[in-house]
Design brief:
Low-confidence stretches: none
Strand order of the largest sheet: 2-1-15-14-13-12-11-10
Distance between the termini: 10 Å
Order of helices and strands: HEEEHEEHHHHHEEEHEHHEEEEEEH
Mean pLDDT: 93
Radius of gyration: 19 Å
Largest sheet: 8 strands, antiparallel
Structural class: alpha+beta
Helix content: 25-40%
Number of strands: 15
Length: about 350
C-alpha cells in the first residue's frame, strides 16, 4: 500500500471503534514528501470544525505580538491592564490574595495556579448538551467558587481555561476591538485564512459528540472565545501551525521564550500556549517515540509538529469523552509515515 492508503486504513480502523462518529486527519512532512488529507465515518475532510483549546495557540500569538509591539509586558500585572475588572478575591491561597498581582506571563505559561472555570458545572452541562452563554464576569464567578490549584509560580503549570479568558480580555482592552476582530486582523488576514474565526451563529461544521450523544452547544463554544472558541479547517489549521512554529507571527526571541517547558499533567509539558508530549522509554518498551509540540483540545482535536521527523499532524475526533485518545493515534500515524519513508 502507498502511504496515503495506509493512513486511510489507519483512520478507517480507528473510526470503527465504539463511540467514534468521525475522524479527520492531515499529515504533511516538511519536505512535502508526505501529504495526506482524509476522513472516516461521518466526516468530510474539508469541513470546518471546533478546534477547542488549540485556540490557546492563537491567543498566545496575539499576546506575543502585543509584547513585540511594546503595548504590554509579560511581567505586567493583568489588573493594571484590566482596570475595569476587579481581580480581588479571584485567587486566594492560604489567606493570600494573589488576584491583583497575577501577571500576563503567569496566565500565558499556566503558572498562575488559578482554578479552571471549565471544571465547574459548565463541563457537566456541556457533556449533557445543555447549552448556555456566559461572559468574563461569569467566568470569574465560576473560578472563585472553585478551589485554586496552587499559588503562582510553584515551578509547574496548572492547566486553566480561566487564564486564557483573562488573556482574551487583555487583547480586547489593548486593541480596542473584539477578540475575533484582533484574530482576523493580526493572524487570519496576514496568513490568508478565510475559514478561521470565533464561532458565529450555530453552524459548528463537524458535529461534536460525547460518547453517542450529539452535543449542540454553539452558545458555550462562542462564549469560550480566547480559550477554545475558534473553528477552522484542516488546511487552515496547518497553515497557522507552521507559521507559529516557524516564528513567522512574532519575533525570534519571543518564539524562544514560548518553549520554556514546565511540567503539567502526564504526559504533557506546557510552554507559552504550547504543549509538549514526549513519552518516557519505560512506557514504550524502550522504543523511542517522537517529540510532539503543539496543542490538543478537549474535543479530541490536535495540532502538532514533530521536529525529529519534520512532520505536521492535525485533525480531530470531535469526541469529548476521550481527550487523550489522539496521542496514541498520532504516534501510530507518525510510525506509518516513518515506515513508508515519507513517500506518498
Amino acid at each position: 500500500m502507498t502511504l496515503s492508503q495506509s493512513l486511510q486504513a489507519l483512520i478507517d480502523t480507528e473510526a470503527s471503534k465504539p463511540h467514534t462518529h468521525g475522524i479527520i486527519l492531515r499529515v504533511v512532512s516538511g519536505d512535502g514528501q508526505a501529504d495526506f488529507k482524509g476522513s472516516a465515518g461521518a466526516a468530510v475532510p474539508d469541513t470546518r470544525f471546533p478546534i477547542a483549546s488549540i485556540t490557546k495557540m492563537y491567543t498566545a500569538a496575539l499576546i506575543m505580538q502585543l509584547v513585540d509591539d511594546g503595548l504590554i509586558k509579560l511581567d505586567q500585572p493583568v489588573q493594571s491592564i484590566l482596570t475595569g475588572v476587579d481581580l480581588a478575591g479571584l485567587h486566594v491561597v492560604k489567606g493570600v490574595d494573589y488576584g491583583p498581582a497575577l501577571t500576563v506571563r503567569q496566565l500565558l505559561h499556566q503558572t498562575s495556579g488559578l482554578a479552571d472555570y471549565y471544571e465547574s458545572d459548565l463541563a457537566h452541562d456541556l457533556k449533557l448538551g445543555k447549552d448556555r452563554s456566559y461572559d468574563l464576569g461569569d467566568v470569574l464567578q465560576m473560578t472563585k467558587a472553585l478551589p485554586p490549584s496552587a499559588a503562582p509560580d510553584t515551578g509547574r503549570s496548572h492547566y486553566s481555561d480561566t487564564n486564557y479568558q483573562l488573556l482574551g480580555a487583555v487583547i480586547e482592552t489593548v486593541t480596542g476591538s473584539t477578540y475575533d476582530q484582533a484574530l482576523q486582523e493580526q493572524i487570519c488576514q496576514p496568513l490568508g485564512l478565510t475559514q478561521t474565526g470565533v464561532l458565529q451563529g450555530t453552524n459548528v461544521g463537524m458535529q461534536i459528540y460525547h460518547k453517542d450523544q450529539r452535543l449542540d452547544v454553539p452558545l458555550i463554544l462562542t462564549s469560550m472565545t480566547s480559550d477554545g472558541g475558534i473553528i477552522s479547517t484542516l488546511d487552515e489549521l496547518l497553515v497557522f501551525l507552521r507559521a507559529f512554529l516557524e516564528g513567522r507571527l512574532f519575533r525570534p526571541e519571543s518564539a524562544a521564550q514560548m518553549r520554556r517547558w514546565n511540567r503539567m499533567f502526564f504526559p504533557l509539558q506546557y510552554g507559552y500556549g504550547l504543549m509538549r508530549i514526549k513519552l518516557p522509554l519505560w512506557m514504550t518498551l524502550f522504543r523511542t517515540t517522537p517529540e510532539l509540540i503543539g496543542h490538543s483540545g478537549a474535543s479530541g482535536s490536535f495540532a502538532y509538529y514533530t521536529p525529529d521527523r519534520e512532520t505536521y499532524i492535525v485533525g480531530s475526533f470531535n469526541q469529548t469523552d476521550a481527550p487523550r485518545r489522539p496521542i496514541g493515534f498520532m504516534l501510530k500515524a507518525l510510525a506509518t509515515v516513518a515506515k513508508h519513508g515519507g513517500a506518498k
